[in-house]
Queue: 2 jobs
Job 1
Amino acid sequence: MWRYILKRLLMIIPVLVGVTFVVYMILSVAHGDPVQTILGDKATEEAQEQLRAELGLDRPLIVQYGNYIWDALHGDFGTSYKNQVDVMDQVLDRFPNTLLIAAGAILLSLVLGIPVGIISAKKQYSFIDNASMVGALFGVSMPAFWMGLLLVIVFSLKLRLLPSSGMNSESLGLLLKSMILPVIALSTYSLAMIARMTRSSMLEVIRQDYISTARSKGITEGQVTVRHMLRNALIPIITAVGLQFGTLVGGSIMTETVFSWPGIGRLIVESIKSRDIPMVMGSVIFLCVIFSMVNLLVDLLYAFVDPQIKSQYKGK
Amino acid sequence: MIMKKQERIQKAREDVLNKPYEAADVKQRSLFQETWMRFRRSKTAMFGLCFLLFLVLVSITTVVIDVVTDQEIYNNYVIEQDPASRLQLPSGEHLLGMDELGRDILMRLLWGARYSLFMSLLSIVVALLVGGALGAIAGYFGGKTDNIIMRIMDVLLSMPPMLLALTVVAALGTATINVVVAVGVSFVPSFARVLRASVLQVKEQEYIEAAKAVGSSHFRIITQFVIPNSLAPIIVQGTLGVANAILTIASLSFVGLGVQSPLPEWGLMLSNARNYMREAWHITVVPGIAIMLTILSLNLMGDGLRDAMDPKLKN
């Protein structure tokens, strides 16, 4: 099993190189000459050449990529075209805000989604099952940004209970209050998806013979549920949870736009609109690295729950 | 005439042997017919299908109307602004009310259906073909092939779909076709992964071993046995994929990086409505319901298809 873990850890390196390469290439090939963006159309030939040499743009693309990564590893993502601020500073400034609502959302979806799925499966076709599955169906069908808008209409404009936008970090209470609506909007999809996945995965194991065997041994229903059903149903659930992180990144971009939340997603959207390519590149690469790390953690989790992986690497 | 005992027994045996064949007269049904028969029984799945067919019909009709009338109706009712009636609530004259620039929301919804529908379908079909083929090959052959394909997929999977789409849009600009490319690319790795996983399971079955034993070629085994038996999850994923693509396209338009004004794309309508939430709720609610119903229909259809294709999965 350790071999599996080591293998996975080593595999992350080419993945990271690949991702950064893809992003770098897409963004630097397609967006045209940055020198003109910076200096404008009226700059002289010499001034353009000088800046080009300064930025290292006269060298081959692969060298430029190498330089970019080398600098990035030293904490330098370059400077923004737009307002000359340091990209890394901006990214590190914004990221915790995104992490805040993303962590809140995943926590909410796990804490609510898995129990709802288990109860629905155990009481299949009951009122609880039907109600929660209809709810989940609407949950996966609802765009996060629309959910956000509806929440604002109801809780901010009509009931005037919660702030409609912005992040208030004056005190913990106010921060939590301003987090509530974004977290709910962001978690809707993941929560519904995890609940559905848990239910269907549980239903697959619930009628297996070994469940009857477990019951006939006389252990409690709780033990049967957790040790015999949930453990066997866990792998698809973990996969579903792992897939949610990607959705969360997309969802947080939308949620941050709706609630004017100062996160990294909104930074990306604003930078794309103002054609601030270094800022886009820095934030996208940063998010991709974080996302790869999360994927790695999910994969490592498989080593502990998937007997197939365990046996595959037994004795190695 | 008295038959010999031996002959009588022989005849009785033949009768018994022949009878079940005549009596049952089992009609040979194709996999498609079987699936359709079971699919039809689910009311929710049929609702999904009907709603989607309705949308397809609306999209085609509006395109035809545009061609025939040389966009006259489009220009007069979908694009033309009427400041006097802006933010009007739903009424007999305008069933779903007027938007922030005084355009009929119902007309805009009908004319906007094509964006969600055709753009998402196109991107998913491309993604399914590419991703499905890669996943099947990786899962079936395993080893080095699997490793190479899946590492490339890992690279793409390490980019959340929305982020990949945003990057492509950032590079190519916000043209409609770029959005389709962006969304299509972002779905390839997840389809590859799903099909690979189910192929890995199918591969271990006895019938694959049997096919190998009688000397079937790899191509035949993959296309005749592996893919049909791995299809249930990928079709469900594909239908959900269309739903996701609709969502991604609407999302891109919502943040202003997808379909551009004044086109009546649903996500864009929501984006424009955002600034008028205080004054009128209906312009925020109505387009959202349209998006949700479309995605809901696809989800219902996906569930119905899953149950119909593999009754075993239906607990």
Job 2
Amino acid sequence: MSDPYGPLRLHLLPFLRLASLCLLGSVALFPIYWMVVIALTPTGFSRTLTGILPQGVTLENFRALFTERPMLRWLGNSVLVAALSSALALLFGTSCGYVLSRLRFRGARLLMVAVLITQMMPATSIIVPLYILFRDLGLLDSIEGMVVGHVSLVVPLAIWMSKGFFDRIPADLDGAARIDGCTRLGAWWYVALPLALPGLAAIFIYGFVTSWHDFLFAHALVHSPQLWTAANAIASFRGEYFTLHEMQMAAALVFALPVVVMFVLMQRWIVSGALTGGVR
Amino acid sequence: MLLPALVVLGLVIGLPMLRAVEMSFDTVNLRRPHLAGKLGLHNYDRLLSDPRAWSAVALSALYMAGTVAGSVALALAAALLTRRIVRGRALARLVFLLPWTFPAVVTALVWGVMYEGNFGVINRLLDHVPFIEGANWLVDRRTALGALILAQIWNEFPVAYVFILAGLHAIPEELYEAARIDRAGPFQQFRFITLPQLRYILAVVVILLMIMGFKSFPIIFILTGGGPAGATETLTVLTFTTAFRRLDFSYAATLGILAVAISVLLVLGYLRLVARLDAGRDGP
């Protein structure tokens, strides 16, 4: 008896590890696999599936999605809202983040905590007063209104992330620019912003994805189907095609795919960004 | 330069929040517009004696507890299994990160399809398992909340996985070498090295997941809408339906303020933990 764990360590443990890894991995991937299988099954036939293998493969559901439904228009609305709101949130967020990173003033820390709370609180808390405000301003049921709504959704994270990025750029650099005659605004625009560019790209992408994925604001602020964003549109499919799973899954797949593909391509970069950002 | 930034911030967040406070003292009910202008504490009175509101808080707590426990357990297992992989490392990580990239709306739809009572794949697979009966998971009030929690765990456990994996890589390998010299088995190594070293990062993960669970809305709203008979009506769902179904915006604003108050507590806890984590890094 030299090593009580000897045989266990040599044979059983590596095998158990591999087996549990495969099991856990399949559980994580199964919903994605199933979404693909159902989306490719001919309409109405998913209820006859007995095993977990596809029976019959067709792209008919996707064709119907784009011809019988205005899916392209909904995706277009999503792109428009996401691009505008993340660009605006980037502009406001980075200027706020820069000020909070460079200026020492009373209440700066309290302001940061308040911003963090708005990021961490449920969005249902803000949608209720926002709806009433938008009703009074005539912003309901419009793309502009949804853009403003999404700016309020993205801006807190943009402030926190950009403050983090600016904190890592030495203040001496823009201090030197100011001695050379730059205004504070000039130092931000010409010195700090270009240096923080990779970080800004990250903020823009986070903002875009947040807006693209948002369901609550899209559902509450817009009613006309031609103004729906894709998130709201595909959610409506559950009510409309309650038993037509094939159409639901095809729509869900089309909606999820752009972000999934982007993530796979930029995995390493996103994961390190998420960790250093620290908030999400 | 501070001024324009603050003005924008005030407009998109400050103004709505102030309006919410104002509404909570008023009566903004789109079904009873004539009641507007009556100021007072009546919404808060109602909140204190409203069993539905407190049941929603309890359900939110249950939902948070379930999603946190499940996500941390799953993420810990996945992180321990993938930490020392050499070949196929990027692929193994991608597998456990992928669910994160799916939006909550899509998560809701796919789990809704899988949970379907008559021909959903979960019941079809359970047909082959002895002693476990299928169920109408989202319609049965005994299983609905658990079913939603499971869907949320699938969607959010990668967040915990990223943090825990980073935490595992920060543990010095010498500790394990010393333990092996002392003849510590794998379980002792986990109990006396891995867990204590992960303590702070686990605490941060728990509170982040609590916040995510508390905020959760689309999965619950799309799959059950708070039903059956209020069995899954968390605070976020109750706030939304109070405003947009019953059109009682003032009471919804009051419920929203309750949610903000709970979030403040969670965020303060989070900040304390992060501060301790930073202090721990500098110290011994």
